[in-house]
Amino acid sequence: GIYDGDAYVTGVEAAAMMLRALGYTAMPASENWETPVVAKAAEVKLFKDVGAVNGSTFLNRNAVAQVALNALKADVVNTDKEGDIIVEGIVTIPGKITYTKVEVNERGYTGNADNASHDYKYQQLCEKLYDDDLELVTVAAGDDFGRPAHKWTYENKDVVTVSDKADRTYVGEVTAEDLYDDLGLRANVPAAKVDTWTDGVKANNKKIDQDDDTVKFGTDGQTVEAYYIKGATAADDKVILSIVSSYLGVVTDDSAKSGDKTGIRIDVSGVGSKFFETAGGYAEDDVVLLTMANGDIKEITGEPKTVSGEVTRLGSDKAMTIDGTKYPQAAQFGAADGSVIKGV
Questions:
Q1: 323: exposed, middle or buried (C-beta count within 10 Å: 0-12, 13-18, 19+)?
Q2: Which of 108, 144, 153, 344 is the most buried (most CB within 10 A)?
Q3: Is pLDDT at 344 greater than 60 in this prediction?
């Protein structure tokens, strides 16, 4: 009964609002109203990718956005509640509550031909609110890094492309043998069935053999995301590997322009000067870590951690030993000729 714009919203409160939007207008009787809400929210996966939620968990903007996204992809229901049976002075027996999913043929929805694999038997909240204008489709070519992805469109205009969650993610090097075991492959995968992308560029394919630890993917300063695409038979199985490098950059212009876009200009290690569209928040001489695909900056991932001390070794592999700790050089860290950057 209270609207308070300054109050924090808990996960259970957010879930209760989303459930009402989905058509759950009544909940089973309980001494604690949160109990049936949490149970139903978990059933329809409202808390997916949000983490543990309870009555005292306050949600930040990212978490609320995730709950809302999960609600948009959840099925809509009609709630039918029978009248309570009241025996005056003795007991009140709550009426039975029935939830019935709304079938899409009730409004003539035919589905999206671009994503025919989706089960369109039931109406989702995004369909109820936006009809055919809002769609989630598979991106055949993947995202900028070659990762399998899906794209939201509204009135046939792109909203956002989101990569699918990898089956396995590795920081640094991974062998074919480990990939075979970790992905649970059914048979060795020939090179022709292993699509490998490095920073958005198609790389030479290598086979994945269960007994081969000499074939390796990725190295220091790179992240390897692995996707197992299971076919009808083992011979149809496919593996997609997206290798993303971490680049070092220095902001050289904090109010740059490129056409009608505003942003910053970054001197990227081993690459050169690049423009990156952003609303601000960076100053000249800021040192940042970033990712690139097909020669363009895609994301600034943060600031590098710095260390200081006595350099006791600088090896031919360009690794440094500082105060007894060895720091290997990242794959994309260095001058254009491959040497170590001066002053580092």
A1: exposed
A2: 144
A3: no
- CA distances to 287, 292, 308 from 305, rounded to whole Å, are 10, 20, 10
261-272: pLDDT as tens digits: 999 999 998 899
Q: Cβ distance 53 to 46 under 8 Å?
A: no
Kindly tell me the sign of the dihedral angle through the C-alpha atoms of 10, 69, 299, 183.
Answer: positive
Contact criterion met (CB below 8 Å) for 294 and 304: no
> CA-CA distances (angstroms) from residue 62 to 129, 142, 149?
22, 24, 20
> What pTM, to 2 d.p., does this model score?
0.75
Q: Please say if the pLDDT value at position 258 is more than 60.
A: yes
Question: Is pLDDT larger for residue 343 or for residue 270?
Answer: 270
Residue 134 Cα distances to 5, 23, 38, 62, 158, angstroms: 29, 20, 28, 21, 10
Q: What residues contact 330, with CB distance under 8 A and at least 6 apart?
A: 220, 221, 222, 245, 246, 248
pLDDT value for 343: 40
Q: Does 61 or 176 have the greater pLDDT score? A: 176
What secondary structure letter does DSSP report for 26?
-
Distance CA 17, CA 98 (A): 19
**In the numeric block, which tokens belong to residue 126?**
């995004």
Cα-flanking dihedrals φ and ψ of residue 106, to 5°?
-70, -20
Helix (H), strand (E) at residue 266 = strand 261-268
**What is the pairing mode between strands 287-293 and 247-258?**
antiparallel
Which two tokens mark 205? 């394919």
Quickly list DSSP for 38-63: HHHHHHTTTTTTT----TT-B--HHH
Q: How far apart are CA 103 and CA 82, in angstroms?
A: 22
pLDDT tens readout for residues 135-189? 778 888 899 999 999 888 888 899 888 899 999 999 999 999 999 999 999 999 9
The per-residue pLDDT of the chain, averaged, comes to 86
What is the Cα 310 distance to its own chain's centre? 40
Q: What is the DSSP letter of 309?
A: S
